Amino acid sequence: MTWHKLALLTDIPEDAALETGAAGQPLALYRVEGRVYCTGNLCTHAEAFLSDGFLEGHEIECPLHGARFDIRDGRVLCQPASKDIPTYPVRVEGGAVFVELP
In terms of C-beta density within 10 A (0-12 exposed, 13-18 middle, 19 or more buried), how is residue 53 classed? Predict the structure, then answer.
């Protein structure tokens, strides 16, 4: 596992997703209630970019078919998706956001 600097904290809008990536993986960063979360950026149902979806609280909704996922643990909250999305550990140091990836 390696830590990757993905963004500055100020780059991540509050209550919206930021498209990013590292190590060949499409990722999304979210800032909700002062905390930063990182998930894979592809819906497990139709491979749409979740960063193009709607974030409400800790739920990201796929822009294509409305599947929803919890950004804290990646679990599916409603169909048509049936497979969870990956989540990754995040740390913030000196205003920079780092994510640990395999």
Answer: buried
Instruction: List average pLDDT for each run of 10 residues in the chain, which is 102 residues long.
Output: 95 94 95 96 94 97 96 97 97 97 92
Q: Tell me which DSSP letter residue 95 carries.
A: T
What domains can you pick out in the chain, each with its CATH number? 2-101 (2.102.10.10)
Classify strands 68-70 and 59-61 as parallel, antiparallel or unpaired: antiparallel
Task: Name the nearest CA neighbour of 82 among 65, 101, 99.
Answer: 65
- The helix/strand/coil state of 42 is strand
